[in-house]
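Can't paste images in this forum, so I'm doing it all in text. The chain is below; anyone willing to post the predicted structure tokens underneath?
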Amino acid sequence: MAEAFGIRETSITFRSYTRKATLEEIVLELLQKESIYFEGNTYNTLTELCAKYQVQPCNVFERLKYGKTLEEAVYLPIRNNGKRYEVEYEGKVYQNAAFLCREYHISKSLVKGQQRYKPEYSFIKCFQMIKQLRDECKWPDTEVFAFIPRLKVQGTFYKSLADFAAVIGMTRGQIDAYKSRHHYKNMIEALQAMQRDRIPAYKTEYGLLSYSEARKRRYTYAQIEKLEYIPENG
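Text version of the structure:
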């Protein structure tokens, strides 16, 4: 089961002993909270995986809720159930909002999320806002725009500074503290200085690994925190 859904067997086992929940509920919870291993790669979130494979996160999660494996949920095409909720955008009529979002590689869930903040706006109005933001970010056309990025580092978008910090083996608090202590004007200056200062490395059974390499070996954040940290000149 763990292999079918790309999550750690130990995580399933632990929750089955500590939570009063069904196995299905545990798997769905883990898919939203932990990293996912799929086709040789590890993704920090289900949204990140969906962006890679250009599928709508809401569609994938709904399929998982109905018992599909992760592979089935990712690769199944949009099903035409005969219902038509037509929407028109730039002179073209789409069968429904999902088909519109799919053509422009924009997450329907992201658009609906904006509608919750602006209930007076129509779906199309929110869609236009999201599309404009995506274009201004220069988001790659080959990936689904599934979240509003807070920063871009070396060509990679991150939803938040905390997400970026996790990738380099740190916490947001550590980056903020470093910036404040050295009186840097902005976060980029602080990150550049930190890069010169040290290279994160951890002693593992596979030898010295950076944070990203350890994640590829399927170490969890909690496990990495317990590993011995080796400074650049250590």
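The mean pLDDT is 80. The chain is about 50% helix and 10% strand.
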